[in-house]
Structures are given as C-alpha cells and as structure tokens.
Amino acid sequence: MPTVVPRSAADRDSFWSIPRSVPSRAWEATWLRLVDQFINCDSFTLYKAVEDGVPAVVVEYISRALNQPTPEVLVIIGLPETRYRRKLEAGEALPDAAGHRAVALMLNRPGF
Hints:
By secondary structure, the chain is an all-alpha fold. The chain has 7 helices and no strands. It is globular.
C-alpha cells in the first residue's frame, strides 16, 4: 500500500489561496470562488485540503456568508475566541476538529 505524504504548505496554500484578512467589499467574490472550488474538486483533494489545515480566516468568510457574528460561528465549531485570534494573527490553520466543523458548515450552507 502506498504511503500518503502530507502536502507542503505551498500545496495547501494553492487550495486555500485566500487573503489572510477578509476584504470588506470583495469578500463575496473570494467566498464564491472557494465554494466553486469545493464543488468542483474531487473528494480526495477536498479531504487532503482539510487534513492539511483549514486557515483560521475561513471562519470570517463563513461568518459573513451565514450572516452570523464570528463569535457565534466559533461556538458552533467549538473553538475558544482567544485561541482563534492567536491562530488568525499567526496565519495558522484551525485545530483539526474545528477545521472539520468549519468545512461542514461550508458544505451545509443553504444555497451551497
């Protein structure tokens, strides 16, 4: 059985190529591109992207798309706000469970 090698940060960034902060006006175009990418990628690519790490900034895109305050989204994905802020400021990925829950929110969003 072949060994699965984790993708590099550059590979992760190519899937999650979104700004480190959410632009006030152009956020929806980035969100729609990300949603389109989710719809059009194969299951293995999506699995790898999630396993390699969901950037913390994705929470803010979800918050805007759901029209919910970021703290409410954080409650849903089970992530304390202080830990989220540290991850966001450092440009890091969400913890595994929170990343999986964030993607579940994206995939179950009405109109997705």
